[in-house]
Specification:
heterodimer, A: 334 residues, globular, disordered C terminus, B: 337 residues, alpha/beta, 8-stranded mixed sheet, 4-stranded antiparallel sheet, 10 helices, 12 strands, 29% helix
Chain lengths: 334, 337
């Protein structure tokens, strides 16, 4: 049994490593094959005035003249030593560039993620509980409206109301000047971006939970559970919500990149110093090393989340483990 | 003797997109302690709706229009969900048609049965619940209950699942067990086993049972009394002997004649001509009239009342009226003297 577990987790790790490898190759090639001039990000406007010789020299210096496969092997070798090169634009080690910003994004995205999914679950259960009654209908309408509002517009409206008119919330940044490290100040700065991130996706997932639960409520096993005298609360939480959870967890994992992408818009509207804006810049200006590391970070996050969600699924609903079916399901007929 | 269950003039309607479906129309019957009553009829005649309406398991679109349901002398017609929860499981319980879908796929069998035990025995310790679950699993004939306790529904075959469903239904020793076509989704050899088990348990525990089926052959094996339903109404009710050996309603004749046993070497089986009427706007008079070769003119005009044949045997057909012409039943015997 022990050994089986080991093999099981070993397999997962192997899948993880293979996925990461494929991802790195793909990103590396696509970035370099995409049209555009990487020198612009390093030399800025000067690039246009460069002679072909100078260009050649600059390309050589940045190591961009070699075949892509050679470049890739070099990159991997360095990566294993913890060296991811310098950012063309910031002329700094990419780790430092990202390190200064990633914390902010993780705080914003992470807290938003937790609030959103917890809220969506509660809201979904609430709606399913009062199916087609007043509370459900009002929530459904409000939800549809809220999810139709584009996030950048909503962000501007919030800034207008709370920063410009009421002057109770700061409109941008992570800290006010001179207040770095102040926890209360930090929280104040997070309120509006978080609201936007949560509101943008909340109803989408809440509605999905609502409908999934309603599907479960109509299943035959609910009738049997009712016939044995189970009350609605236990029926809802022990049976229906439980059966919805595997799907929800996988969706949570799949939603990670969405939230990550969502934070970008929010980050730029609120001038929030995170990696969202950084990713956009690096892709646009061919800042290869920075782009590579950012893609690897988000890619690894997504792959990791997917594998975790699959593992959780298998624990909750053992039918998902395909090998078990063939092993244990010989039918005994008495 | 006190009736365990008494249904009087029950009418149930379901609101559908095409209009109000009058699924159960003016049905009356009663059930004694420890008795097996079979309800037979073709698909869509309201058998399941009748059972589910007694347990109030129908969707909110279904409403009891008229009539009353008494359990143990208590009128439960107006009971709300909260009050019904206390009755379900303990007073009456139900086995459903498809054991493949009536168990929660993500919960271990033992836990699902245990849950049913706990609901009505809240002060049981873990060991007591476990013991009761294993007893129940043994009662319904699940071998190796200790090992199977920890298995999931998909690791069981159809017949075994139906046994689990029975164990759940019997967990709180209900007085009445509704078995809604418990063998329809199973293959024939398993059908017989499940029916025998049903009978055996019923004998052992004395649980009054209402067995819903569209198969007269199935019913003959276990029923004490038989009610024949057609288009939402009970058209004939009597003891099993009476209904099988002396059927009076032309619809019952039709059902009997379509049994393979009655084909007697003929090339094809008998079928009742036509289709059952829709229950959205049921026909005036006897709903069976247009498929009935013995129909009288009055059948198209007025609904026949229940004619008493013996103390236990009733049938709703105008053929039993003293003014009706003498007709020889195709099953042998005449309809009324």
């Amino acid at each position: 049994m022990r050994q089986k577990k080991l093999v099981y987790y070993g397999k997962k790790c192997l899948i993880f490593l293979i996925s990461v490898f494929i991802l790195s190759v793909a990103v590396f090639y696509v970035a370099r094959l995409a049209p555009g001039d990487p020198l612009i990000s390093y030399y800025g406007d000067r690039t246009e005035k460069m002679s072909p010789e100078e260009r050649e020299w600059a390309m050589e210096k940045l190591g961009l003249n070699e075949p892509i496969s050679v470049q890739y092997v070099k990159w991997v070798k360095n990566a294993f030593h913890g060296e991811f090169g310098i950012s063309f634009k910031y002329k700094q080690n990419v780790l430092e560039v990202i390190g200064g910003r990633i914390g902010n994004t993780l705080v914003l995205g992470g807290i938003g993620f937790i609030i959103m999914f917890a809220g969506a679950l509660l809201l979904g259960i609430l709606c399913a509980w009062y199916e087609n009654r007043l509370a459900d209908r009002i929530l459904c309408k409000l939800g549809t409206i809220s999810s139709c509002i584009p996030e950048f517009w909503m962000a501007l409206v919030l800034i207008l109301i709370f920063s410009v008119n009421l002057k109770i919330l700061p409109s941008s940044g992570a800290y006010s000047t001179g207040n770095a490290g102040n926890f209360g100040d930090r929280v104040l700065h997070l309120i509006m971006p978080l609201t936007i991130i949560v509101m943008e996706h909340l109803w989408y997932y809440a509605y999905m939970i609502r409908n999934k639960i309603l599907e479960e409520v109509r299943a035959d096993y609910v009738l049997l559970a009712k016939a044995k005298g189970l009350n609605k609360k236990k029926l809802m939480f022990r049976h229906c919500v439980r059966n919805v959870m595997p799907a929800y967890l996988s969706i949570m994992a799949i939603a990670v990149p969405h939230i990550l992408g969502g934070t970008y818009v929010v980050e730029s509207v609120f001038s929030y110093p995170g990696i969202g804006a950084l990713s956009y810049e690096s892709a646009r200006y061919h800042d290869y090393n920075l782009l590579m590391l950012l893609c690897m970070i988000s890619g690894i996050l997504v792959i990791f989340c997917n594998i975790v969600s699959q593992t959780i699924n298998e624990q909750i609903d053992p039918r998902m483990k395909d090998e078990v079916i063939t092993e244990k399901s010989e039918v005994v007929e008495g | 003797m006190e009736h365990l269950l008494e249904v009087k003039n029950l009418s149930v309607s379901i609101d559908g997109p095409a209009g109000e479906v009058r699924a159960v129309r003016d049905v009356s019957f009663s059930l004694k302690k420890g008795e097996v009553l079979a309800i037979v009829g073709e698909s869509g005649c309201g058998k399941s709706v009748l059972c589910k309406s007694i347990m109030k398991l129908l969707p909110p679109s279904a409403k009891i229009k008229e009539g009353s349901i008494c359990v143990n002398g208590q009128d439960i017609t107006c009971y709300r969900e909260k009050e019904m929860q206390k009755l379900r499981g303990r007073v009456f319980s139900m086995i459903f048609q498809d054991p493949m879908t009536s168990l929660n796929p993500t919960i271990k069998i033992g836990k699902q049965i245990g849950e049913a035990v706990v609901i009505h025995n809240k002060n049981y310790t873990k060991e007591q619940v476990n013991k009761k679950v294993l007893e129940l699993m043994e009662l319904v004939g699940i071998s190796h209950p200790k090992e199977r306790y920890h298995q999931y529904p998909w690791q069981f075959s159809g017949g075994m699942r139906q046994r689990c469903v029975m164990a759940i239904a019997l967990a709180a020793d209900p007085d009445i067990l509704f078995a809604d076509e418990p063998t329809t989704a199973l293959d024939v050899t398993i059908q017989a086993q499940i029916l025998d088990l049903l009978r055996e348990i019923q004998m052992k525990l004395g649980t009054a049972t209402i067995l819903v089926s569209h198969d007269l052959g199935v019913v003959a094996r276990v029923a004490d009394r038989v009610a024949v339903m057609y288009a939402g109404k009970i058209v004939e009710i009597g003891t099993a002997e009476e209904v099988y050996y002396d059927p009076r309603h032309p619809y019952t004749w039709g059902l009997m004649r379509s049994l393979p046993a009655f084909a007697n070497g003929k090339e094809s089986l008998y079928t009742i001509p036509g289709m059952p009427p829709t229950l959205i706007d049921p026909p005036k008079g006897d709903a069976f009239a247009c498929r009935n070769e013995y129909a009288l003119n009055i059948d198209y005009e007025e609904m026949p009342p229940m004619f008493k044949i013996t103390d236990t045997h009733y049938a709703a057909t105008w053929l039993l009226d003293p003014r009706a012409p003498q007709i020889k039943s195709p099953m042998g015997g005449i309809v009324h003297e």
